[in-house]
Fold:
Amino acid sequence: MSKEYIIPACSGMKIDVKQGQSITVIDIEGGQVVDFFAEATGNVNEFLSTGVTIDCNESLKLNVGSIIYTNLYQPMMKVLSDDVGEHDLLHPCCRPEMYDFFYQNGGGHPSCFDNINKALEERRAIITPVNLFMHTKINSDGSILVEEPLSKAGDKIILKALMNITLGVAACSVSESKCNSGKCSPIKIVVD
Structure:
């Protein structure tokens, strides 16, 4: 049975997914980043690791067929299809300290760090999610630039759960830069 979830702009949600189910993440309006984090159901000590994912795939990019791994090097999800082909595996969740560092406005600013921790009823010290639809340009000299997402309204990525997982997902809260095209909007997730 298919379940649909709408995550409003600048908020987060917990979603349980069974092994074998598909997860469709849809950018409703276009240009919106999705902070996409997960844990092995029932084990907060096994969780999505972008570092391990980069290591095992030997790539800074996700492609159709790529596997997303846990911190224990276990396959967690597989990319089945992707309308956009541009996602970020480098940046941690936005958090109050980041808003203070870059924009001097961290006090009371919504953040993916707080939204995911709240959704999962946890207090992780740092969360490095897969930033779906985030367009990070990696230059040959090693410098990086965050550009506007390439996703258009209705674009989606579909993943298959390779284990029972609990998602902590946030519609990114950064409106101060090109990260979300200068505005924040809702996202849709379909699990079936």
Residues 3-191 form one domain. DSSP finds three helices and 13 strands in the chain. Helices lie at 50-57, 96-103, 112-120.
